[in-house]
Amino acid sequence: MLFNKLNNKVQPSAKFIRRKNNPDFSLFLIRLIFLIIVAALLLAFAPVVRGNAEQANGLALLADPLVQLNFAIFFAALILVFSIRKAKEWERAIVLRLGKFHKVKGPGLFFLIPLIDQVYRVIDIRIRIADFYAQETLTGDSVTVRVDAFCFWLVWDPQKAALEVENYEEAVALASKAALRNAISKSDLTTFLARGDLIEKQIQEEVERQTTEWGITVQYVEITDIQVPPDLQDSLSRMAQAEREKSARIFLAEAEIEIARKLEEAISIYGKDQGALRLRILAILNEGLKTGNSMMLVPNSITDELKTKDIFGLAALNELRKEKGEKI
User: Fold this and answer.
1) Dist. CA 299–CA 276, nearest whole Å
2) What is the pTM of this model?
């Protein structure tokens, strides 16, 4: 177990998405322009220096104040040129003065004191993505799974990120991986598959609790893939089918109960109102006749009721036929 932890520290399972910046020649151009300006100023004193050189030897020329001034300006320009630094809009430079933290510089141009100030590290404060995964880990119900995830994070305090932790990118990767393994071991597979949003929130809170002290915050964590052993996938499939069949049967049973309750209400209404019952009988017969059936099977009680009440006027039609001598 200790050997595995050491391997994870040496080779963290995380990939950071970086963009390759094109070479930036703006700082080089600034230094070149500055040297050109200094050279132009030195050339302004050239006629005076040449006139003095014609009247004196080399040692006397070095003692000339104008020559000394030119050399002083030249060396000061060189020192000043190499003191210019530039940071981009999303970069912050950590400046150390004699080995101690001095200031966070940037963005834009800034100056350093040569041999005294040093740019220790340049921190990118943009949102970055870390893709990490947990190797085969046991869930709460002893199922071996492999989970892949990624998180969005950023540095909100460059000073803490540079001084509190040696390699903050590796620290974020290790903290995310440890939080993922911890979340897997505390949850069973069913909960992990069904409530992934809760697991993601738990991982985010646990990682952010550690990285806040380093000046880093985790904005979002998402689980991208959950791999289970092949022999367990068939069992999970059968379990899901059984669960869907159970839900379907429960739904049908609830529908039957609802229908029975409605029929009970209808019986109560028809039992109290015979007129409503007759209207319902006629509605049923009407629906049957609409289908174009030439024969309908109905209970004798309904036919007796129709004859006695002569609802369709059959008795009157028969008497009319008798008067005309038609065969009934």
Assistant:
1) 18
2) 0.57
